[in-house]
TrEMBL record:
This protein's encoding gene: dsbD_1
GO biological process, any: cytochrome complex assembly
GO-annotated molecular function: protein-disulfide reductase [NAD(P)H] activity
Name of the protein described by the UniProt record: Thiol:disulfide interchange protein DsbD
Main location, first listed in the record: membrane
């Protein structure tokens, strides 16, 4: 056991640590001691602050076994900010002394200190330390000048309280998925930083910090990465060079205005045109995807059934279908701009997380399929039919418009392979970028309709109506039924088996009521309306089961905070953000991830396959995607010791791309 001033040093390749004391002896009238935990960190290593950030552990000291010690409180010097693996951490590098205020049980008597230190240090790997430091300070007098100077140096870095500091932390508010903090100082801010503390369940991303022209007012926005409904007390530390303050600001109800707006780098015309062309091509390709092809086929079949229509009616019908596609895209882009204007993050394809939307689409497709199978015919009342017949064939234009809009709605879950880059560009750009990209997408999707509108005579090149049309009709019915089954399966993942089965039963009743004749003029419409309303009400009244869906033995559930820990242990992490409604995700899994040689590599003991299921809304996954400037899925990224910030893969995976990324990320460890 060391006597006075300092303990023996605990030392390894990452750190050296010792317990030091200002006092060489306990004076007769002294009931306190000034101690310090002196930690020297090797090059590239860091230790953590009392609030470590997104991940990490703060140093802890147990004083069990000490004698004549009542309490010992650590004083925390202001931290630095570290970014590793795309995650924000707070702590120290090179050297830190944690000042410790010790209160004795009996003044003037000797003290025996037993300090059990638990400490985590990280570089490219993280190493926990657990060691004991013993120090005896006898009764007497004397000061260790070197220890006193060292402890005083770091004690001066401990943030002041609000009454003693020249920095005033004014207000704080949580809104739009972020924490906003304001502060002011008579002395201009030079290099400020903000460190909020709200307990372990609240974590924050990299802050956006701005000051006014004079530098005396500070505004900070910190993205909220994880939280809970109940707000714990907030403590904020603001640092600026050698000065720092820790305070508990007043909660505000108003989001403060930023002192200035950031001006984004505007894309040039060539880039906008290239992205628009990419969206146009993607929209065109979507017409042959399984989501959209049945709708286009129905349109062509309806034209064949009315082959005697004049060319101008055929042209107008296809133009209305094209307009339906474009109007849907314009409404969608307008909705996106409105949501973005109020600070809501918008994702592509998120309507397939909405159980009411899924129910509507399932019922519509079920009715269409039943109609094509010949179970019943959809017809208007005879009086209305006669009236519409006198309107020179315009009666079908509403249906043509709906056909185009319907195709556009169904296109979104198939779009990721072709539109991921374009949609991400639009959602992260200016309003005009959103409008241009979504208009180009709509034009691409409506090109087949525009082609037939341009040359209505091309319809005559199609085979004449005959018995073969019955076969086509049944094939189309099968395609629609298959799409309806897929939607029901997605609904099962979003709202649970009970809701899906109940909606299926109600859909059967809907078809039954549409088929049979019921007594009374309004009986059947009333029955159909009642079943439809009940179907739409079900998802809202029956909560989805809280159980977590099984994701397979080769995968672990996504946990963003686990990624740096796994990498620090030499692991490679493959993240797959997927959903039941994402057809491209399913294709990637079936054709690449579940096949040799990729599946064998993912099962390697040095690889962790992590799956983020976005079938249901999940704010953690949404924020994770937004952090990578992504607004839709699939999204796959590989982390490793040689790729701490991740290697992002294309939306359409290939075996070579996955294997090459895994090799590159793990290169520092495996090779």
């Amino acid at each position: 056991m060391s006597v006075a001033a300092s303990t023996d040093t605990y030392e390894n390749t990452a750190i050296s640590a010792r317990l030091i004391s200002v006092e060489n002896g306990v004076a007769t009238n002294s009931g306190t001691l000034s101690l310090g935990l002196d930690i020297k960190l090797a090059e590239g290593w860091k230790a953590y602050w009392r609030s470590p950030g997104e991940v990490g552990l703060p140093p802890e000291i147990s004083w069990d076994g000490s004698t004549n010690l009542a309490t010992a409180q650590i004083l925390w010097p202001a931290p630095e900010r570290f970014t590793a693996f795309g995650i924000e951490n707070f702590g120290y590098n090179k050297r830190v002394v944690l000042p410790i205020q010790a209160v004795l049980e009996t003044a003037g008597q000797a003290v025996e200190l037993q300090a059990g230190v638990t400490l985590l240090t990280c570089s490219t790997v993280c190493v926990p330390h657990d060691f004991n430091l013993a120090l005896t300070i006898p009764a007497g007098a004397g000061i260790d000048a070197a220890s006193a100077a060292l402890i005083s140096e770091f004690a001066e870095r401990v943030p002041l309280g609000p009454d003693a500091a020249d920095i005033e932390v004014e207000t704080a508010v949580i809104a739009d998925g972020a924490l906003y903090v304001t502060a002011r100082s008579a002395n201009a801010f030079v290099n400020p930083d903000v460190f909020p503390e709200m307990g372990p369940t609240f974590t924050f991303g990299k802050p956006d910090i701005r000051t006014n022209n004079a530098g005396t007012e500070l505004w900070a926005k910190l993205p909220l990465l994880a939280s809970e409904e109940q707000l714990p007390p907030l403590q904020v530390t603001v640092t600026d060079g050698s000065r720092a303050v820790t305070a508990m600001p007043e909660w505000s109800n108003t989001v403060p205005d930023a002192p200035f707006e950031l001006v984004a780098n505007l894309p040039d015309l060539a880039q906008i045109l290239a992205i628009a062309a990419f969206a146009l091509l993607g929209g065109l390709i979507l017409n042959v995807m399984p989501c959209v092809l049945p709708v286009l086929s129905i349109k062509l079949t309806s034209v064949l059934n009315h082959g005697d229509k004049p060319s101008h009616e055929v042209r107008n019908g296809f133009l209305m279908s094209a307009l339906g596609v474009l109007v849907f895209m314009w409404v969608l882009s307008a909705g996106i701009l409105v949501l973005q204007s109020v600070g809501i993050t918008v994702g592509w394809g998120l309507q397939f997380q909405n159980p009411i939307f899924l129910t509507i689409m399932f019922l519509v497709l079920t009715v269409f399929a039943a109609n094509l199978f010949g179970i019943f015919e959809i017809s208007l009342p005879s009086g209305l039919q006669s009236r519409l017949a006198r309107s020179s064939g315009r009666d079908g234009y509403i249906g043509d418009f709906a056909t185009g809009a319907f195709a556009a709605v169904l296109a979104t879950p198939c779009s990721a392979p072709f539109l991921g880059t374009a949609v991400a560009f639009a959602l992260s750009g200016r309003p005009i970028d959103v409008i241009i990209v979504f208009t180009a997408l709509g034009l691409g999707l409506s090109l087949p309709y525009l082609l037939f509108a341009w040359k209505p005579g091309m319809v005559r090149l199609l085979p004449k109506p005959g018995r073969w049309m019955l076969v086509v009709k049944w094939v189309l019915a099968g395609l629609l039924a298959g799409t309806a089954i897929w939607l029901l399966w997605v609904l099962m993942g979003v709202s649970g088996v009970r809701v899906a089965v109940s909606v299926l039963v109600l859909a059967v009743f809907f078809v039954l009521f549409a088929t049979i004749r019921l007594p009374g003029r309004f009986t059947r419409p009333a029955a159909l309306a009642a079943v439809a309303v009940l179907s739409l009400a079900l998802p809202g009244t029956m909560a989805p089961p809280p159980t977590i869906k099984e994701i397979g033995q080769d995968w672990v559930t996504f946990d963003r905070s686990e990624i740096p820990r796994l990498i620090s242990q030499g692991q490679t992490v493959f993240v797959d953000v997927t959903a039941d409604w994402c057809l491209t995700c399913k294709a990637n899994k079936t054709l690449v991830l579940d096949r040799v040689p990729v599946v064998g590599r993912l099962r390697d003991e040095k690889v962790v396959a992590m799956q983020a299921d976005w079938t249901r809304p999940n704010p953690d996954i949404s924020r994770y995607l937004e952090a990578h400037n992504r607004f839709g899925i699939p999204f796959n990224i590989v982390y490793g010791p040689n790729a701490p910030d991740g290697i992002i893969l294309s939306e359409v995976l290939t075996s070579d791309a996955v294997l090459n990324a895994l090799d590159a990320a793990a290169l520092a460890v495996d090779k």
